[in-house]
């Protein structure tokens, strides 16, 4: 591998590396050869380097590396820059500028899978790894500076100068003096995946007896048809689903529903907040005829309390829907299978696939996730015992997986629906809109041992025509389960295109996730506006716009202030928007540009007046 060393003072660090097998060292310094050789021990180190076959290059500007190396010799596997400094008494601002130019220059000569190593004195980097940590404005802000050039911090290690044979740190304030290396840190940067450039996308799906195409909502373009649950996938979401299925098959005969489930549903949505639904308009010429639509409604799949009377029939006067929507749940698909009679009592039927729900921005609120729905018909009067067996099986499998991954026994509980107050997460809150729930399945780990809801249990005594059978169903959020089991703190990481995510999960194996992007910088912007008179502000639409404009780099939106103008009654809202990416480089300039676009979009799409 080719290793480039920059800013060498006396070349003692380079001399210590030059003997490594399989490594070709290119050692450089900013000074001329005459100036560099005057430093104590430099001449000896230079001779050693040349005798070992290493290259020694002088007068190299670390901000213009492309100019010093021919195109065929620019692919460096590692670049080292130990204790960079502008010289003399340069302050933090000038040293940030030096690092910014350095990282942009590295991007032109680093191999695709290469690393950039930057050693800094304790406190300079401005990351939580520094002990003690400096105030942000008084640090070199190395992670934010590197992000502007497309790099992410992937590791931080102690810089142990005493373990490097013959190494002597020099160059403090351009003098033959040593930097204070006690507590120094080596920051290791890698290339980030580039920002996603998402083009409009259409998708085909069965609808009734025909196949239709539709325009995918922009916020879902990078998430539709990702194939996480396909047989060839090694994604942890699929592994969790397979492990749960294997556990359930020990207690029940199990049948996976392999038929292609439609992405689109149609029909009225009484009782569900419409702003939580991704509404779809079919592509021109794709809409079914009125007769087909009416027939589709006659055979429609209904949520338990949507558009039905007490007998389960479609209510008279229920309007024919003019729009379709991405499925928010697999429950209607299970009901369709039941109504068609393709349902074997005593057999556990398993449906799985992505479902789509517009929601507010939080680390655990997902606009798309993979649902695993298990459905079982049992004899009336035995449903409580069935639920107990079903839940115990899920608890045993989940607990075993968590212990194997982290070595910690999680807290798994079945909570009565009546025991929850207002602390429901978005997944559970939406499930409550789909029909009555008997139990919530919660998994708790430190620091939240009380548990996050990952599943709901329902019983439906009227789903089958038989008066002797009751349908029991369990809906599980596979994405939340995978996050809890593997220690993934942000749902966006499940959808990252960065190959380093899946590399941590060999096929069929769950492990604790180690982030490849440490201490990502965050950028805070405020936005204030007047809302239209007499209208309720749609906060979910506001959050969805932020997702779309930022490419899912908005990590938090908080209402900071409300104001009602005396006399006119006009209402103003002020929100704080925080930009932060969990998996790729996000620079301050890019975040500022997103904020400007966001301001324009909310004005055009939501009809607000900016302040």
UniProtKB/TrEMBL annotation:
Its main location: mitochondrion. GO terms for biological process: rRNA base methylation; translation. SUPFAM superfamilies: Anticodon-binding domain of PheRS, S-adenosyl-L-methionine-dependent methyltransferases. Its EC number is 6.1.1.20. PROSITE patterns: FDX_ACB. Belongs to the class-II aminoacyl-tRNA synthetase family. This is phenylalanine--tRNA ligase. The lineage of its organism: Eukaryota, Metazoa, Chordata, Craniata, Vertebrata. The gene is Fdxacb1.
């Amino acid at each position: 591998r080719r290793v480039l060393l920059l800013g060498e003072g006396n070349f003692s660090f380079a001399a210590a590396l030059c003997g490594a097998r399989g490594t070709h060292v290119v050692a450089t310094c900013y000074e001329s050869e005459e100036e560099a050789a005057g430093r104590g021990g430099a001449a000896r180190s230079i001779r050693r380097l040349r005798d070992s076959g290493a290259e020694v290059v002088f007068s190299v500007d670390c901000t213009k590396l492309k100019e010093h190396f021919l195109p065929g010799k620019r692919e460096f596997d590692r670049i080292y820059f130990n204790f960079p400094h502008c010289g003399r008494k340069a302050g933090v601002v000038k040293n940030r500028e030096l690092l910014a130019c350095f990282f942009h220059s590295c991007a032109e000569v680093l191999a695709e899978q290469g690393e950039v190593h930057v050693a800094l004195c304790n406190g300079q980097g401005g990351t939580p790894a520094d002990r003690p940590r400096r105030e942000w404005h008084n640090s070199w802000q190395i992670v934010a500076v590197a992000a502007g050039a497309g790099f992410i911090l992937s590791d931080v290690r102690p810089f142990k100068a005493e373990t490097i044979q013959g190494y002597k740190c020099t160059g403090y304030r351009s003098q033959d003096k040593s930097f204070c290396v006690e507590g120094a840190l080596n920051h290791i940067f890698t290339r980030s995946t580039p920002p996603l450039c998402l083009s409009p996308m259409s998708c085909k799906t069965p609808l009734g007896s025909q196949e239709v195409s539709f325009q995918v909502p922009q916020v879902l373009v990078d998430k539709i048809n990702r194939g996480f649950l396909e047989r060839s996938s090694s994604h942890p979401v699929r592994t969790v689903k397979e492990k749960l299925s294997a556990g359930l098959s020990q207690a029940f005969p199990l049948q996976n529903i392999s038929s292609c489930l439609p992405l689109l549903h149609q029909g009225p949505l009484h009782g569900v907040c419409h702003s939580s639904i991704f509404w779809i308009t079919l592509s021109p010429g794709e809409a079914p005829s009125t007769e087909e639509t009416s027939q589709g409604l006659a055979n429609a799949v209904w949520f338990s309390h949507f558009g039905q009377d007490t007998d389960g029939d479609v209510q008279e006067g229920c309007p024919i829907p003019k729009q379709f929507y991405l499925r928010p749940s697999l429950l209607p698909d299970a009901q369709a299978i039941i109504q068609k009679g393709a349902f074997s009592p005593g057999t556990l039927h398993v449906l799985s696939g992505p479902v789509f729900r517009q929601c507010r921005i939080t680390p655990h609120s997902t606009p798309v996730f993979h649902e695993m729905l298990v459905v079982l018909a049992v004899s009336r009067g035995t449903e409580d015992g069935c639920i107990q067996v079903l839940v115990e099986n899920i608890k045993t499998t989940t607990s075993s997986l968590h212990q194997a991954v982290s070595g910690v026994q999680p807290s798994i509980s079945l909570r009565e629906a009546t025991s929850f107050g207002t602390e429901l997460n978005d997944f559970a809150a939406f499930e409550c809109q789909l029909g009555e729930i008997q139990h919530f399945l919660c998994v708790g780990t430190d620091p939240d041992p009380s548990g996050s809801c990952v599943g709901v249990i329902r019983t439906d005594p009227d789903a089958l025509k038989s008066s002797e059978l009751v349908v029991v169903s369990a809906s599980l959020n596979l994405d939340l389960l995978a996050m809890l089991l593997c220690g993934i703190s942000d749902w966006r990481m499940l959808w990252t295109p960065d190959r380093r995510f899946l590399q941590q999960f060999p096929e069929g194996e769950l492990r604790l996730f180690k982030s490849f992007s440490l201490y990502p910088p965050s950028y805070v912007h405020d936005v204030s506006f007047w809302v239209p008179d007499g209208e309720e502000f749609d906060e979910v639409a506001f959050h969805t716009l932020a997702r779309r404009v930022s490419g899912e780099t908005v990590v938090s939106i908080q209402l900071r202030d409300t104001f009602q103008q005396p006399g006119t009654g006009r209402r103003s809202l002020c929100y704080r928007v925080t930009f932060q990416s969990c998996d790729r480089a996000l620079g301050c300039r890019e975040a500022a540009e997103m904020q400007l676009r966001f301001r324009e979009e909310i004005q055009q799409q939501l009809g607000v007046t900016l302040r």
